[in-house]
Amino acid sequence: MDLQRLEFFKKLITDELAEYINDPKFKEELSEPVDQPVDIIDQATVEIERRRCFTFKVRYDIMIKELKNVLTRIDNGTYGVCSDCEEEIPEKRLMARPTTRFRIACQETREKRQRLKELRGRIGGEDLYHVPSR
Fold it and tell me: Count of alpha carbons within 13 Å of 106, Cβ hemisphere only?
């Protein structure tokens, strides 16, 4: 990838990172209620809201970490290169998902392997291709 395109993606990622870090909604969402309600239904509502906020924060933290990793890859010259096959990731894919580390074909292969792994775990770790002898 040429230097001009790298600078474009670096600015895109830097701007997005700044939005996440400076988002006032993010800071407001994580504030704790001062008083604990006495009513059991109100307590349940507060707990649901607390969990929602926690999930929100975790997603924000993951995205911030991904964006920082992209900036590192840009700085060390590996941005836009597939982490599996080391071929260049098409710019169209990078525009759609700037944080991606994989070409579409490699991502699909990874997802298929993950689904097989999960399926094996559900059936007790048996080999799906092994036919037991009688």
Answer: 15
Residue pair 88/81 in contact by the 8 Å Cβ criterion? yes
Angle 48-55-34 from CA coordinates, rounded to 5°: 50
Q: What is the pLDDT of residues 88-119, one digit of tens each?
A: 999 999 999 999 999 999 999 999 999 998 88
Query: What spatial distance separates the first Cα and last Cα of the chain, rounded to whole Å?
Result: 57
pTM for the whole thing? 0.71
pLDDT tens, 56-73?
888 988 999 999 999 999
Closest CA to 103 of 119, 116, 87: 87
Identify residue 87 by its one-letter amino acid code. E
- What is the rounded distance in angstroms from the CA atom of residue 103 to the CA atom of residue 86? 9
Give the domain ranges of the chain. 3-102
Which residue, among 90, 63, 99, 102, has the nearest Cα to 113 in the 3D structure? 102
Q: Which CATH class is domain 3-102?
A: mainly alpha
Read off the DSSP letter of residue 78: -
